[in-house]
DNA sequence: CATAATTAGTTGACAACCAAATTATTACAA
DNA sequence: TTGTAATAATTTGGTTGTCAACTAATTATG
């Protein structure tokens, strides 16, 4: 295995990830969805997990706390979520979907799944297994203890 | 194949790409390299291809023109490259490494290859083939004509 | 030859990323 | 109990990505 290739692999990974995100964002815009892809990921995660703190949410979404703080700020402006105090730890904030946020997620989930499909056309069941296994391996290789 | 999974795959792709970049950037910092990962990619590409226009360079690096313009601006501030006029087309600009830039690339190349390796530990030759094939397929699925 | 369409590069606005520093609160230890 | 360390969230600064709009130069067309 030539070392030169590693740079190349990094590039492929980077570009593909950007393309997938870009395509999703374009689909959002076409459907006049007033969210960014990352905002959607956060909303979806909150839909699937109630009463997360920001730290927990950040971990689940794979984002930094500062990044998450800003994304949350933006979604709050759109009135889809709200911060509420943690009952026993005043450092923490629980996040909850508002009525509008709940409705938003339920309305959009099928649509979003639909145009997420395109990226994965012409891939077999085995491909998905390879994909998941290899990317997880890479991720773990770089895990900081 | 459940549609729900597609969101998950997108997330894995995104997070892995970010981790790889993040690890590389951390290694740069540890070694007190005064470049970002993207700036390095641009320098390296210019080392391997002389007299590229910004458009050609953007294509080779897989970046937009606006993004590239800004990265180039930053590298120029560090005196590693310079813009020179295109001999026959006054819309274009050729980019060239300066003496310092040339030295920089030659000094750093082995070091950078070294810590790029870590991400790809424990992967087989077949894994690399799958990786390349699958990611290229995804990229092509989303190619805008 | 004049006008329209295309191309290369830049800029502005906004979102997201990371690192480092800051604040407030809680947990732990001398 | 007091002080120190750890934790949750935020803020700040710098870089990158995307989109849209713009300028200047070149090519195509009528």
TrEMBL record, chains A, B:
Keyword tRNA-binding: no
PROSITE patterns: HTH_CROC1, HTH_MARR_2
Entry annotated with the keyword DNA-binding: yes
SUPFAM superfamilies associated with the record: Winged helix' DNA-binding domain (SSF46785)
Highest taxon above the source species: Bacteria
HTH cro/C1-type domain sequence ranges: 43-71
UniProt-listed InterPro entries: Cro/C1-type_HTH, HTH_MarR-typ, WH-like_DNA-bd_sf, WH_DNA-bd_sf
UniProt-recorded Gene Ontology molecular function terms: DNA binding; DNA-binding transcription factor activity
Start and end residues of each HTH marR-type domain: 6-140
Keywords: DNA-binding, Transcription, Transcription regulation
Protein name: MarR family transcriptional regulator
Organism: Sphingobacterium hungaricum
Lineage, highest ranks first: Bacteria, Pseudomonadati, Bacteroidota, Sphingobacteriia, Sphingobacteriales
